[in-house]
Fold this protein.
Amino acid sequence: MSLPRKRESKRGHFMAVLGTPERPLRVAIVGSGPSGFYSAEALLKQDLNIKVDMFDKLPVPFGLVRYGVAPDHPKIKNVTKVFEKTASNPKFSFFGNVTVGKNISVFELNKFYDAVVFAYGAESDRQLGISGEDLVGSYTATEFVAWYNGHPDFQDHHFDFSHEVAVIVGNGNVAMDVARVLCKTPEELKNTDINQNALDVLSKSNIREVHVYGRRGPLQASFTAPEIKEMGELADCYPVIDPKEMELNEASLKELEDPANAGRKKNYEIMQSFLSIKPEGRKRKFFLHFDRSPVEIIGEGRVQRAKFEISRLTGEPNKQKVRGTGKFEEINCGIFFRSIGYIGIPIKGLPFSTQGGVVPNQAGRVMDFEQIFTGWYVAGWIKRGATGVIGTNKPDAEETVKSLLEDVEQLNPCEVPSSEELLKFLQEREVRIVSFDDWKKIDAAEIERGGKIGKPREKFSRVTGMLSAI
Ligand code: FAD
Ligand code: NAP
């Protein structure tokens, strides 16, 4: 990347040259999850003078790596070491506890930054749109996951595990996380970083059967092989599938042999192996049901039953559609989770597609009705929708940074190119900003708290607790 040349403004004044030793290119990143950190990494490795300030609404960094990834999958969280390396760059700052859209508007951010990368994830959840979804006992995977991971916004949620049967709708990896946490014994969870309150509540759970429902067949499930395999390896739980639901129609048999579907074929083989698994003294059961579309959650005042339409797949291989058969079945249950995907929410002032739950963009450049907003960019789940693992966000962020760097000469230099002034601005609004050094103190305190009870960390599940550790 060559240095941007000096530009003459339309009025004949010389404009600041961004990215030079005299005037760094100032970039704000909104969100400290994987896409935010991968964007920062891609910016900071350029041969340009770039200052990166990263904002997060929470006092703590790492987004879903901290509040989504399951507590019993600790190795995945090691990616934070890579993010810490980025954070140690002297041209990087973290400003936690700052909600963009509330503490500072998107337009106010532009006073202090030449470009803004919005990488604020997809925090909400999709709805089924069926009757009974609002009954007591009907929850979203989003809130359950955030609760057991100690997210401060979800600690007042109550989950009732007094019934023996739980239903989960959705066939993705999040559904597998939820099922696994419900099927594991307290022994299997106690040495993880699961929130202690959640562990205490789950330890008293009466759930003995977890039923996961997919609207398509076993070959169309979107979970991945290691995750489904794990469901056959639990201490006190064994998997159950009706062999009839493993039968494939002609189009699915063709899909099975398509090399592009190797991952799905692996899933199918693992599920086939479940058919011969014996209980061997294990008391809990994990059921997989396929070709079942949820139509109603039934109950007086609270969840008592869930109703599904039996469906079948029709159409060409890899393009099969779900068709109802007009036949229905019900299951008695006390708790119902929908796990059908996350969805983004808007930030005031920023273009937003309600249908897609994303900020409309072209290769990361924010756009609305064909108009490109030069200087505003998006990365990660808010850019492409809530799909993909942590690593997917790296090439995604690199594409966004490439677009930003191509635009450097078109960017409007900001009015106040100073992070000190930005901090003063936020302090005047009584925002208690948390730096990366502050986070390190919270981190150390959480590890110490965890160490006392045999866990890798015990998170502060309230913002006040986090701030008191600084
Ligand atoms: P996020 O990680 O959600 O980060 C967004 C950040 O923006 C958050 O820190 C949030 O606090 C902040 N933010 C939001 N709004 C604002 C605002 N207005 N102002 C300031 N900050 C804001 N992938 C794997 O590879 N392995 C796994 O095991 C795995 N497990 C997962 C489990 C669950 C339950 C989920 C939902 C996902 C999982 N993933 C996993 C996928 C992975 O977490 C995502 O691909 C990734 O986190 C998306 O990154 P992101 O940066 O776009 O969003
Ligand atoms: P997902 O993989 O998109 O799965 C969503 C599931 O919901 C699909 O099975 C989908 O079925 C189903 N669904 C959607 N609408 C439905 C409806 N109206 N009725 C019934 N079912 C419906 O999403 P996710 O599980 O939330 O995961 C998000 C991303 O995070 C994924 O990329 C995932 O791999 C990743 N993640 C990874 C891990 C890991 O690596 N361990 C863990 C968690 C999450 P259809 O396919 O028929 O639409």
In short: The chain has 16 helices and 20 strands. The CA atoms of residues 225 and 269 lie 9 Å apart. The first helix runs from residue 34 to 44.
